[in-house]
Write a structure and sequence with these properties.
Elements lengths: L2 H20 L18 H7 L5 E4 L2 E5 L4 E12 L2 E11 L4 E12 L2 E11 L4 E11 L2 E12 L2 E10 L8 E11 L3 E11 L2 E12 L7 E8 L3 E13 L2 E10 L3 E12 L3 E13 L15 E16 L2 E12 H6 L5 H5 L1 H6 L6 E7 L4 E7 L8 E16 L7 E14 L9 E13 L2 E3 L2 E15 L5 E14 L2 E9 L6 E24 L10 E18 L2 E15 L8 E2 L2 E10 L2 E10 L4 E12 L4 E10 L4 E10 L4 E10 L9 E12 L3 E10 L3 E10 L27
Antiparallel strand pairs: 1-3, 2-3, 3-4, 4-5, 5-6, 6-7, 7-8, 8-9, 9-10, 10-11, 11-12, 13-14, 14-15, 15-16, 16-17, 17-18, 18-19, 19-20, 20-21, 21-22, 22-23, 23-24, 24-26, 25-26, 26-27, 27-29, 28-29, 29-30, 30-31, 31-32, 31-33, 33-34, 34-35, 35-36, 36-37, 37-38, 38-39, 39-40, 40-41
């Protein structure tokens, strides 16, 4: 990596540490969990009269005239959900006011407060504790005085707050005055943030909504091959309780500055959704554009507008809509190599390269449902099929008569379709009106140990292509599904090789399905006579599953699961009968700490495997595991991935990820494709991750991530992992 880029990265790392440690967002993840909300105060006040006040101590005296308890030595007072312990106590049983001294400790659902002296009213839940220490998970603090005004408000005078439990915390926020409204907000005056004994940030006044656990400012520095050194920032805002969002100001050295905003809204009247706008007037300095050519464009306008909305109109009707508008002058001028989503939002691009805009309305009825879809092309630089509209009616399964055991299924749709070609050929559209209906009758029955589901079905499809004529297709089909299950129990109990076998159950599940169809398409056109020849097909599909189960600690677990599936296409006119590929799936769980999952495809005609994949995972405890996997395609990719995560001790942890390509595909180079190394250090109340990633063709990245352990909800992650194995099926009944 060039030294210049390394300096930029280290500088960016310093900036992120400053923002994440010392920005106003530091105190914005406060969440006094468990504190009683305001709405519950009246209920508590009503119940005070009936609740007894219990006093226990080594020495207890009571004055009947003054109605005062005097206690000393291991004093414990219990009232409702509040416990008070101290060395000496004076308590008025009528007013429930007390004065406590010596190792005072008060504990309630709000947390724990300790101090040298306390005055408190158990009935009003208010008081003052001197030289106090408090703990309200995950917060710790010390103050000269802590006033408990009510369950809904605390006021501290001249103290500090931190998430570090040490007597000398790593960081703290010292304040002149701090008003805490549990579960609602915090108001701070004259606050100074310290790291150790070094003051780094002063805030004359600050107020924060405690119901928002995330950081106010998100900063992500780094470097990428196509972006160069970069700094991405997001500033969270709250307009109302139902409208929140982020402001974006990003810098990429190769592209320049870009900005935008996102808004999330939630309305009980019209539903919820999100809106995003992101804009850049890009000045490309990368090698992708010829900077030496004076005639080459240097500035490009690129932006994204996105709206997503969902509305539950009533219990049976809902609406879902999306709108995606992308303007990309760079793509228009320099070709489809450039893509705004790919260049600026690679993760969104991997999920959906060409997002569609649409409105869909769904309506449920007693036995059926109806869907209306309006799908219009918004971005003319990619081809798309418009549906204006598409109406679909579904009757999933209706029993004909109360005792007939015959079920009827129907699916019908009408669509006005138009195939829109990508610009500049988008004027060559093809319009089609299509109507189709599918009807099926099935009669489930059981013969001996076999479950049969014979069926008959009919499908009609009519398409009007305008000047290109019309087509009509009739499809008749029929067949049956057959399944059964056998199992056998073995009274085996052994711990040989540490397998912990407590009984075995072998389950065999064969399945078979046969279907026959006859398709008769025809052209309806005044210039043509006759129709097309019918097409017949006959297919038998079969599968076999073998599962082995046992019990461990009273719970059923799968030891092994092996499945085979294939199909046979019977001989039709002009085509011989043929056995399709075998698909093999295997899952092994010999021990609780190891698993193997694999699948493969075998060509029966050629006699070899065309693909094989597997994943092996070893779990040796918390933060200690190793896994590797392989993706093999004949005459294609052959990728091997490794991941190791290992905690050396309570303070240090490291992880390694590698991806290697051994395939023969010419488009992908063989050898090591990607490496990532992470070193994590636990600093008691925070953790720091140092990350390094190198990917062939994309360059190197190095970054640091700082997380307060009390508030881990940072919104950016850089996790790479091999294909994680799925858990075994646990659907069978207990042994």
């Amino acid at each position: 990596m060039p030294k210049k880029n390394l300096r930029n990265i280290l500088s960016a790392g310093g900036i992120i540490l400053f923002f994440l440690f010392f920005s106003p967002g530091l105190s914005q993840a406060i969440d006094f969990s468990g504190i009683m909300p305001k709405s519950e105060e009246p209920e508590r006040e009503k119940s005070n009269k009936a609740e007894p006040l219990i006093v226990n101590a080594d020495n207890v005296e009571y004055s009947t005239e003054e109605k005062v308890f005097t206690a000393s030595g291991n004093v414990l007072v219990v009232f409702q959900d509040t416990k008070l312990s101290c060395r000496s106590l004076t308590l008025n049983s009528a007013t429930k006011e007390c004065q406590a001294e010596g190792n005072v400790r008060m504990e309630d659902p709000q947390g724990i407060i300790e101090g040298s002296k306390l005055t408190y009213n158990f009935e009003k839940h208010s008081g003052t504790i001197f030289d106090s220490q408090f703990k309200a998970n995950p917060f710790f603090g010390k103050t000269e005085r802590m006033y408990k005004v009510s369950d809904a408000e605390y006021v501290s005078s001249r103290g500090y707050m931190t998430t570090c439990s040490y007597d000398n915390p790593h960081w703290k926020m010292k304040t002149r005055k701090m008003d805490i409204f549990p579960g609602d907000k915090i108001q701070v005056k004259d606050a100074t943030v310290y790291v150790g004994k070094v003051p780094l940030l002063y805030m004359p006044q600050y107020s924060r909504n405690l119901r928002e656990p995330l950081m106010k400012v998100q900063v992500m520095p780094g470097t990428k091959k196509d972006w160069g050194p970069f700094m991405l920032t997001a500033w969270r805002y709250n307009l109302t309780e139902d409208i929140t969002g982020r402001l974006y100001v990003d810098y990429r050295s190769n592209f320049g500055i870009s900005e935008g905003f996102g808004t999330n809204y939630d309305s009980t009247e019209v539903g919820k959704g999100d809106f995003k706008f992101y804009y850049t007037q890009e000045r490309d300095k990368s090698d992708d554009v010829n900077q030496d050519d004076v005639n080459a464009p240097k500035v490009f306008q690129r932006y994204l507008v996105r709206l997503r909305h969902k509305w539950d109109v009533d219990e049976k009707t809902n609406l879902v809509a999306e709108y995606h508008k992308i303007v990309d002058s760079k793509r228009a001028l320099l070709g489809s190599t450039f893509n705004f989503l790919k260049d600026y939002f690679p993760r969104e691009y991997e999920k959906d390269q060409m997002p569609l805009s649409y409105i869909q309305v769904h309506r449920s009825f007693a036995y059926a449902n109806l869907d209306l879809l309006l799908q219009k092309r918004v971005n003319n630089w990619f081809s798309q099929e418009e549906k204006m509209p598409q109406i679909t009616y579904n009757l999933p399964s209706l029993q004909l008569g109360n005792n007939s055991m015959v079920y009827f299924t129907n699916s019908s749709s009408f669509a006005s379709l138009k195939n829109k070609a990508a610009a500049p050929a988008d004027n060559n559209d093809q319009a089609t009106n299509n109507f189709s209906t599918y009807n099926k009758i099935a009669r489930p029955l059981k013969i001996a140990v076999f479950n049969f589901t014979p069926f008959l079905a009919s499908e009609q499809d009519y398409s009007d292509h305008g000047t290109y004529g019309s087509t009509m297709t009739n499809i008749f089909s029929g067949g049956t599904d057959v399944s059964t299950k056998f199992y056998r129990l073995f009274t085996v109990k052994t711990n040989a090789l540490g397998l912990d076998i407590n009984g075995l159950r072998h389950i065999v599940t064969p399945t078979f399905a046969y279907s026959y169809s006859n398709s008769t398409p025809s052209k309806i056109n005044e210039f043509e006579i006759g129709g097309d020849r019918g097409v017949r097909s006959s297919v038998a599909t079969f599968g076999l599953e073998n599962k082995l189960q046992t019990k461990r600690n009273g719970d059923k677990v799968d030891l092994a699961d092996l499945r085979f599936t294939s199909a046979y296409n019977f001989r039709t006119a002009g085509q011989k009968g043929q056995l399709s590929d075998f698909v093999i799936n295997m899952e092994l769980y010999p021990y609780s700490w190891i698993s193997l999952i694999s699948d493969a495809t075998y060509k029966t005609k050629q006699g070899y495997f065309t693909s094989a994949n597997y994943d092996v995972n070893f779990n040796f405890g918390t933060d200690r595991y190793f896994g590797f996997g392989q993706r093999y395609q004949l005459k294609g990719n052959n990728e091997i991935t490794y991941q190791l995560v290992w905690r050396l001790n309570p303070k240090w942890k490291f992880s390694i990820y590698q991806r290697i390509n051994r395939g023969s595909e010419t488009a992908a180079k063989t050898g090591l494709r990607e490496q990532e190394y992470i070193i994590s250090r636990d600093f008691h109340c925070w953790t720091v991750d140092l990350n390094y990633n190198t990917t062939r063709g994309k360059g190197d990245q190095i970054w640091m991530v700082f997380r307060l352990k009390a508030f881990p909800e940072l919104e950016f992650e850089f996790n790479k992992s091999y294909h994680a194995p799925k858990p075994g099926s646990q659907s069978e009944p207990n042994i």
